[in-house]
Amino acid sequence: MANALESYTVEADNLKIQVNIVQSPGQLPLYELVVPALSSAMVALLDDIRHSLITEVNVSASEILDPTAVMAIKKKFNVRSDDILSKKLPHLDIDTRNFLVGMLMHEMMGLGKVEFLLNDGNLEEVVINSSREPVRVYHKKYGWLITNVFLSNEAQIQNYANIIARRVGRQITTLNPLLDAHLVTGDRANAVLYPISTKGDTITIRKFVRDPWTVTDFIANKTSTPSNFALIWLAVQYEMNMLISGGTASGKTSFLNVCMPFIPPNHRVISIEDTRELQLPEYLYWCPLTTREPNPEGKGEITMLDLLINSLRMRPDRIILGEMRTKEAAQVLFEAMHTGHSVYATVHADSINETIQRLVHPPLDISPNLLSAVNLNVVMFRDRRQGIRRTFQIGEFITTEESGNVTAKANILYRWKAGTDTMVKHSESLRLFEELSRHTGMSHLEIEKDLQQKEKLLNWLVKNKVRGIQNIGKIMHQYYIGPDMLLEAVNKNQSPDKILK
Questions:
Q1: Domain holding 46: CATH number?
Q2: Other C-beta atoms within 10 Å of 198: how many?
Q3: What is the pLDDT of residues 379-393, one digit of tens each?
């Protein structure tokens, strides 16, 4: 007998559907989408309405090819289908009519039942492997799950791939069987057609996070500590350069996103990414840039290096690079650090020592003497057995010169202790506080006092369960433009409601 693990409701285009996560003995959990079954007569009626809509509703070729016109076309179909249903079935209750209209819209303008998966905030990935296999999803809580959603045939998958391509003004055909598209929702879709994908047509959709993690979430779930975030906040506030390292899916970009609200609101921020993942508060002076794939003729490509070089002409105070991959981009980024820009980037490496090795050897191949521009290195870690992410190390790079040869080594300030699941101090800083003192004119005692104040504020936010990127943004905005009222609320342990209004 199946054991119910969790149940909740998902809404898409005003349609509410129940989701059940169930597990039978000896089997993996199943993601069950509970969609009411339609009688054969109702299916025939909807087919008839679909044909009527196609012939009656005028949609121009330019509208079909215009990704921004999707909502307008949906509205046309929605209104007309509602009218037809009202005439054919005048006694139908409004909830059932809305359900049928919604199902029609999903079939004609969307991806059918897959639309419900795309609107489930608990899912990170939706994968269609072929029509012979069920759709699979990656659930934030349960990992990879098999669903009870099947697509009827390969033609339907290819049609969905075409719908996705049209939404971004592109095409996917037998001659051009690969599609990599960033949807207007922020989701990233990849499609591969048969016979390149030998099992059948394949679609992979990586969902854009609608409710991103915040610093209070990371403190509450023990990803990092208030004292660690206070140190990072101080470094970000005073324009120290920071690299965030980690393995695949260790939480590098999420951690980077969590730290960006610490930037003062009067600083111009330029972010450069392959896929738009960063979400910053509205108060920040932010210009997000993303790369572009070449068109079928091989023209129009915009690379990270193109954007990085261009960003230097946009008078940035802060530059955020999604991921450091190539030697050229790394060299431009380090030059930006040395010319006074504050830089934040992610890099694949599992420790501070490994980060140094990755930076100074191919493919990045940065000269060791340039590493002194990096003020702080944070390393993220993912424990796959326990399903947790932690800040593994926080440290700095120390460069030394002997006989004309410059070498770099790690000085670990804090490290994660797996046995107790805690962050412990490893060694004293040799550079960071000296550089902070030189940049700010603050004494070591004043820096320590500032860190304590920031840690107290962060603990207050966690205690009052303040979360959400815009709410955290309001708090940080208040801290920079007029901290007295905020710090008074923190010291008196008052509610943050007045500040968040």
A1: 3.30.450.380
A2: 9
A3: 999 988 887 899 999
